[in-house]
UniProtKB/TrEMBL annotation:
Organism ancestry: Bacteria, Bacillati, Actinomycetota, Actinomycetes, Micromonosporales
One GO cellular component term noted in the UniProt record for this chain: primosome complex
Positions bound to Zn(2+) 2: 426, 429, 444, 447
Pfam families linked: PriA_3primeBD
Record text on subunit structure and interactions: Component of the replication restart primosome.
Underlying gene: priA
Record's function text: Initiates the restart of stalled replication forks, which reloads the replicative helicase on sites other than the origin of replication. Recognizes and binds to abandoned replication forks and remodels them to uncover a helicase loading site. Promotes assembly of the primosome at these replication forks.
Keywords in alphabetical order: ATP-binding, DNA replication, DNA-binding, Helicase, Hydrolase, Metal-binding, Nucleotide-binding, Primosome, Zinc
Name under which the protein is recorded: Probable replication restart protein PriA
Family per record: Belongs to the helicase family. PriA subfamily.
Cofactor: how and how many bound: Binds 2 zinc ions per subunit.
Residue sites binding Zn(2+) 1 per the record: 417, 420, 456, 459
GO terms classed as biological process: DNA recombination; DNA replication initiation; DNA replication, synthesis of primer; double-strand break repair
Domain (Primosomal protein N' 3' DNA-binding): residue spans on this chain: 19-118
Disordered: annotated span: 121-171
Amino acid sequence: MTSTRHHDRRPADGSPVARVCVDVPLAHLDRPFDYLVPADLAESAVPGTRVKVRFAGQLVNGWLLERTERSGHTGRLAYLEKVVSPEPVLAPEIARLARAVADRYAGSLADVLRLAVPPRHARVEKETPTDETSAADEGPADEGPAGGDPAEPAPPGQNPSAASVPPVGSGGWEAYPAGPGFLRALADGRAPRAVWSALPGEDWPTRVAEAAAATVRGGRGVVAVVADARDLDRLDTALTRVLGAGRHVRLSAALGPARRYRAFLAARRGRVPVVIGTRAAMFAPVERLGLVAIWDDGDDLHAEPRAPYPHAREVLLTRAQLAGAAALVGGYPRTAEAQLLVETGWAREVVAERATVRARTPAVEPTGDDPQLARDPGAATARLPSLAWTTARDALRADTPVLVQVPRRGYLPAISCATCRAPARCPHCAGPLALPSARGTPVCRWCGRVSAAYACPECGGRRLRAAVVGARRTAEELGRAFPGVPVRTSGREEVLARVPAGAGLVVATPGAEPVADNGFGAVLLLDSWALLTRADLRAGEEALRRWLTAAALARPAAAGGRVVVVADGGLAPVQALLRWDPAWFAARELAERRELGFPPAVRMASVTGLAPAVAELLAEARLPERAEVLGPVPAEDDRERMLVRVPRARAAALAAALHAAAGVRAARKAADPVRVQVDPLELF
């Protein structure tokens, strides 16, 4: 084995050479190694297969990247030990993409390939096309219902060709002046790039399905990524209706091992042209990729929590760039990153005219502006001001459902001393105490210990009050405010998919809002301070994203739809909501970040670990010119974080420098780990 660094030469015995990425998570070994292919493995050891090799005296897994007749090694080469499976699971396009993503995020190729290729399931590999169809229909008993079954592959002998896809008209895309042209470009095999601001009430799964159908009719494939299982279910249903059965699979980490691998193989073998899924699908292999799409790219679920921490939006845009494919970044809000694509000319806006926006938007009112405070002086402090109460009452009288969005789940997720207002903390770990129910005892949210005899360390008081109110307590309060009206909750524990007309009050946390038949009559956005006062660079952007997502479920103003946001109408996120102008807010946010030097206007990396380890890595890193090192700031436990900021033009050099420094520490067998993240969602 060796890395390929010297002049190529042909092995003495004439054996072909395999270049292998060994599955070893060490930064200084992030390069391909050469092995000889024995004669008995010559047919099965093809690029893309999983192999086993001897590395540092141990038998380790690896991916065969390519075969060649020559090696750059001047010494003796070892032979491949085994081909784990003759299935070429790693497509050449995905191998190139994985290398680009690793370089972008200062990571290792092996780490990215672990995200890109699901674990092998031998039984699934041996299934015939008939077995695949039966398994998709029945669902293996050992995998459970999580994530649902992938759509079944095309039956044996049936080719999911472009000609068999039913034609799709412009449909709802006609509401956007650039929409029909975008679909025509997809059908013609071109590569348009669009940032799409969806109208309120938009049936976005159908619009994405129509874009996918146009791409497939043009003879190319599609990868579409959404944030969670509920959105995936909606997109799955829309694709089956628009594209027809058997032409797509769904790929999600929530699927069982067999189902996920079966869906992956259906795409890798070219049996389906469309793959949809959560962030697990961002690396899905698709033949002749023609379109990548992502919905609601601001959702933090799109950020991978495992090294090297790639974001689904960035992976998909990199795929579009490498493959010459179209790109669609859609959502009700718009992120600063999407705005940067528009301002740099990389993508074009797909937006509706203002007259159309006004016709589709519900009436939005704040409770904190001067006229409202003059009518209701208590609105500045009340959790449910009179405007919100009367709006909900009017909607219920009209027999239309009401959605109430609260940012926190649970009953009372934060409590404080009723006497001195000091936050109630766990006496064991200093974590925040919460009340699980009206008659429950305080429980620590960090260690789970019960503090039945809690006494305030500041004043000795034993009475507690609510500091933050959760969804279940809100539902309890609304039940008293509107007696006789059914109140339902939708959150992480139980997510409602859809509610019928006249269903009463629905209290939901962000991301768990159900869809109502014909839309909600009223939407109340409570506890806005919890979103706006977070110590986070994206606090305003995230607040607007959550508000727009909920408000988009309301009926248009002409049909009686109203939205009440309990916030000051002069705040920029509230102004964007009132005017339904996410593009204006995104442009404003991007301009402020340019002025202050924050992503995405610049590229920034965080280095987190024990102080000596962080200092050692930064001392080893040959940072590019104009790099700024900021910090340190405290991180979790006893660690600290340093930030490194560079202009976007030097982003690649920054990632390479940090990766090389991590490699030096790994070669020295440094004991204390350091986490390197490029453009993390949380900087503070």
